Structures are given as C-alpha cells and as structure tokens.
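Closing statement on the guanosine-5'-monophosphate sub-project.
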Amino acid sequence: MNASPDGRLVVISGPSGVGKSSIVDVVVDRTDSCFSVSATTKPPRQGEVDGVDYHFMTREAFLDATDGGLMLEWAEYAGHLYGTLRSEVEPPLSRGVNVILNIEIEGAKQIRGTYPGAVLIFITPPSLQELARRLAGRGDTAPDDVERRFSIAAHEIAAAADVYDHIVENDVLDDAITRVLDILDGEGADAVTL
Ligand code: 5GP
C-alpha cells in the first residue's frame, strides 16, 4: 500500500493550544501536500468552516460512517467524536500526493497500525505552564473546555515518546516549522517537494 509511487502519510499531533494548526497550514502549503479534513461531532469553533476545517456531522451520521467502514481511524476527544474519512486520504495517496493528518494520539496509533510507513510527529509545548497560558489566551474556548483540554494534554505529552517518531518543541513557531520540514525532507525527499 505504501510502496512508491504512493504518497506519504504524515500525522501531526500535539496538545490543544500548542500551535499545531499553524504548523500544519504552512507544512501543507510548503510541501504541496493535501490536508485531510476530519469528520467531527463537535460544534464549529468561531471561524471554522464546514468542509474546510472539518466535516461537521451529527453523532448519528458519524456512527453510521464508522459502521459503514468509511473511517480510517476515529476517537473520542473531550466529549466529541473525531475521525479521518478514507475518502480524504486514499485518493491523494494513490495519486502520489502526501497527506497530512492533524489528529490526536489514539487516532495516531490506529494510523500506525494501518500504515506502518506513516511519519508520526508530535508537537510539544516548551512547558505545561506555557501551554496553559496559550490555551487560556485563545479566547475561543469555554473555560471548562480549556480545563478538559489541559488535562488531556498532560496525558498526551506523557505518552507521546512511545508512539511518535519525532517530537518537536514549539517554542518559536518558525523554528518548529523548519524542524518539521527538515524531518519530512529527511524522511523521503522523493515524496516531499520542498
Ligand atoms: P479541535 O477541536 O481543537 O479542533 O481538535 C481537538 C483534537 O482532535 C486535536 O487534538 C485534533 O488533532 C484532534 N482531531 C482532529 N481531527 C481528528 C481526527 O480525524 N481523528 C482523531 N483521532 N483526532 C482528530
């Protein structure tokens, strides 16, 4: 499945508030990759657009999709379901285009099982204190959700070393982006256009 000329699957994970989306946006752009738009049952955050940031679904539609085998992986996060639709991943990969997933750790483990050649990168904050500051300062997340996301973050950071191929600290955004691009370059320049 992963033999050349198929594209490369790249998973980028990290705790809520770490700056993942900013990194993913630039990396998608700079590597001519496809971003896999996830399905979710969460309500849209301010500014999130259906079909662009997420495919927003009812819980019923989401569970129908998992029952129908349409999801490559899925997980529950902070009370909502999130999953990767096969239709976001398989067509570009088979055209030789790299696909980038922004997903949490349980999904990353499932991807590792299905695509052993996937590159798994975890973005970590300089400290938990800094993460708490960024999460609280985001302004688009309710205080109880901030607390829930922060406690999930501590577990994710503790478990990351056993799951991911690379851990990248996001202290200065541009440095973290450069590091991720370097990793992808080193992982297979043939599959990644820089
Ligand atoms: P947010 O609600 O902040 O956009 O995302 C919450 C968490 O869900 C993040 O860690 C994000 O990476 C993760 N996530 C987004 N899409 C998916 C997905 O398709 N599958 C899984 N397993 N996690 C996802």
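Residues 13, 16, 38, 42, 73-75, 77, 82-84, 102-104, 106-107 surround guanosine-5'-monophosphate (CB under 6 Å). With this model delivered, the sub-project is considered complete and its resources will be redirected to Aim 3.
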